[in-house]
Write a structure and sequence with these properties.
The chain is an alpha+beta fold. The protein contains 5 helices and 9 strands; from the N terminus they run ββββααβαββαββα. The strands form 2 sheets. A 5-stranded mixed β-sheet has the order 1-2-3-5-4. A 4-stranded antiparallel β-sheet has the order 7-6-8-9, with helices on both faces.
Length: 245
């Protein structure tokens, strides 16, 4: 049993609220335990200059932590300057979304996902990815016509979760207290069909064995399977993939 009463393989309570704001076509408030992220998606009928004329679209992301999301207060990033951690996370979110997007089927349009952390208690990047996918689906649903008939812009769903070794035990979906105490922590991004997008694993003043790696990956796979089910439930009829069987 963990400090919050969860099983080793149990996700934090997850809440997903779509259409949280009205100014963008995709807006999702996702809460994993006490970690809360607002994911909004905006669409433009143009692409960056380096993509013009190639018949492809673009999906990118920006990430930030509001000053009051942590204690003590986190200084606000101003003047377009972001720290290395922020840059790393927003690139990860963008890569994760592009991994399941058919950019040719999207056409020459750009989608930007903004992930703003309202409260941070571990797993902000993983919650951002899981929420950003839902915002992306809702945004794509507002597009009346794609350039290639019969070809949809999304190939698969995508979600992410953290795993780690805490007191020698593999645990799923670490909060800040567990992340701080973890000898090994890992962020895993996977598609709904079970393919890996990215695995970020680090020993914190420790090493880990091949067997421990396998156990963490197995744990993450189960967690992401559950997250995909929750994404599908949240989207309901808007789920963009055919039912199995």
């Amino acid at each position: 049993m963990r400090h919050d009463g969860r099983r080793l393989d149990e996700l934090r309570p997850l809440k997903i609220k779509r259409r949280y704001t009205r100014s963008t076509p995709g807006s999702v408030l996702i809460q994993a335990g006490r970690t809360t992220v607002l994911c909004t998606a905006s669409i433009e009928e143009q692409v960056p200059n380096w993509l013009k004329g190639q018949g492809k679209g673009w999906v990118t992301a920006e990430y930030s932590m509001l000053p009051s999301s942590t204690s003590p207060r986190k200084p606000r990033e101003r003047g377009g300057k972001v720290d290395g951690r922020t840059t790393e996370i927003q690139r990860l979110i963008g890569r994760s979304l592009r991994a399941v997007t058919d950019l040719e089927a999207l056409g020459e349009r750009s989608i930007t996902i903004d992930c703003d952390v309202l409260e941070a208690d571990g797993g902000t990047r993983t919650a951002s990815i899981s929420g950003a996918f839902i915002a992306l689906v809702d945004t794509l649903a507002t597009v009346k016509q794609f350039p290639i008939p019969g070809r949809k812009p999304l190939r698969d769903s995508v979600a992410a979760v953290s795993v780690g070794l805490v007191d020698g035990r593999p645990v799923l979906d670490l909060d800040y207290q567990e992340d701080f105490a973890a000898a090994v922590d890992m962020n895993v991004v996977m598609t709904g069909s079970g393919r890996f997008v990215e695995v970020q694993g680090t020993g914190e003043e420790a090493t880990f064995s091949e067997q421990e790696l396998a156990a963490l990956v197995k744990l993450a796979r189960g967690g992401i399977r559950r997250l995909a089910e929750l994404q599908r439930s949240a989207l309901g009829k808007q789920w963009p993939f055919k039912a199995e069987g």
